[in-house]
Give the backbone structure.
Amino acid sequence: MSYDVQSIRQQFPILNQEIQGRPLVYLDNAATAQKPITVIDAISDYYLNYNANVHRGVHTLSQRATDAMEAVREEVRAHINAAETAEIIFTRGITDSINTIAFGMGAVVSNNQNVVITAIEHHSNIVPWQMLCQRTGAELRHLPMNEHGEVVLDDIEDIIDENTAMVAFNHISNALGTINPVEAILNRAQKVGAWTLVDGAQSGPHARVDVRAWNVDFFTLSSHKMYGPTGLGVLYGKRKKLEALPPYQGGGEMIATVTLDGSTYAGLPHKFEAGTPHIEGIIGFGAALKYINEIGIEAIAAHERELLKYATQECSEIEGFRVIGDAKNKASVLSFVVDGTHPYDLGVLLDQQGVAVRTGQHCTQPIMDAFCIDGTARASFAMYNTKKEIDIFKTALEKAVTMLR
Amino acid sequence: MATIKERQQVLIEEFEFFDEWMDKYNHIIEMGKSLDALPKEKKKDDLLVQGCQSKVWLHAEKNGDNVLFQADADAIIAKGIVAMLIDVFNDQPAKEVAAADHGFLEEIGLKDHLSPTRANGLMSIIKQMKFYALAFAG
């Protein structure tokens, strides 16, 4: 069956609108993806028919809400091939997921150890580790990148050594689209017995991940980048590793017993899910996962590869257009500058023509520093984007550049 | 010398002339290009206005009862907007700058065309100008 982008577009009502009198061309998908009607309906259905707090209630609505939420936990488990549902923790997002682990590792990391990240991380996979290192005296190291925006593994054996407590890195860079050599990094980390975390913020909507094939300790996903609601993330962790860490936040849901003198904690996954969870978000995310799987993540990835190739080719015809990050292995992100223009100006003038892109540093200041630029404009693609939209984008970009020069 | 109100009125009338977004933005870009660049020694980090998406430097000094502004930006549209604000507020009595109404930006139709983040950047510049004015007026 061929990929029917028009019928996919019909599932995303928001796309059918005009911005400044022109059809919306939404190319800011790496920031957040739009939601299909099935996700919106699932959330409405929850509030219309079975809104109740989960887990503790004996009444029917609470049971229904709990069942719906726990069914999604199972869907997520299957989606990433985790061993058991107890290893799937719902968080507020990737940032919350990484902070949960970085905080917990304060209990197991000592000052002669080190933590390794890469030079192409989002701030959310830098700052929590800096904070961990400040608390414990551990050293923060990174794998460097080359001029293509690829992580360089030449010195990996010196950087990841016997004293490495954790190796944390993204699967796909949000600012450049680089797909990291996950297996090679994991292999080295596993060889020296370091713990591992892969940030799947950008890979979630574009790639199938099997956490057991990778044998990774922790993996994170973001619902809103995968066509689901905002405010929800997934933290996968191996049971043994999660059990070794203290909880990040205390409160309801995460305890077994509480007295005024002390508390014992609940088992997984509840130990890491303090407070009432984001029930409607979880239910909406379930619908999003189902939708992704109906279309097929491989088919989506192939479609987006085609768009990226086309957009790169087309835009390269514009004088002064420079791709920032031209890694051999790339997904779905076209980060660029145009000589003689500022990304902010490009963003404003593209918006005037109905085209939504992101401009700035994309929460990756170290990458921008390495390329000696203040920021880029970034077009990022999703399952519903079309070649025609890229033509509109290119024409709008040409117009903006003409105005600015 | 024209008052703040009169200068604002001139700008509003200038912009009324444009129907097309392109003309409006071309005008802003021209204003940006014609604003004198700040000398390098004044482009210091402590003059950066916080909360803008591009770098905006704002320098102010007292001139009797009046306040003199100089500014620059690395993005040309931001510079054009700054040029417009300088056009309105430069060498005006500090007291009047501090108390001035900035509704003219809406009348120009600029606010419609600015996203909340960008509008916040714009508000940050205005706030910073008023902050200087208030300090000098005191």
